[in-house]
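Record DJ-1/PfpI family protein, 187 aa.
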Amino acid sequence: MPEILLIAGDATEDLEFFYPYQRLLEEGYEVRIAAPSRKKLQFVVHDFVDNFDTYIERPGHSWPSDLALSEVDPADYAGLVLPGGRAPEYLRNDSDYRRVVTHFFDADKPVAHICHAATTLAPLGVLKGRRTAAYPACAPDVEMGGGEFVDASAVVDGKVVSARAWPDHPDWMRAFMEVLRADAPVK
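=>
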């Protein structure tokens, strides 16, 4: 059974973690959770309220990581999922995060990213020449990283599938499952 790596950290968006995690399990993939360290992670819920210029944040669920990023051999995994939230703002500074994520792009393996995860990809140079979705406030990050921001619910560019935020989950995961099934089918 192919293994998929899902990278999270404290303040990962709750729905952007659990929806792909459970959908991948349902499909028959084994999912391993990596974080800066082995610990119980605390997620957050981002929601939208009328007449508020940005989203609000509430405490979400917690979930344990299976391994630390320093323990990850990315060659062992068939695909990668990167949720958003606030976690990306510190994950992108982790050298093991950068090592692992870069491997998936260099090896042309399936990658799904959503929301603020694009802010971790732009500094790595892996968005250059790519079309990608992200939370609309991250459009400047995508463009500074050499990518083309696309305001859509599921953008497929080769084996990379991106989306804006959790309301896009059905389209995003449907598209990612198509890419994943073609590249790393469950037997």
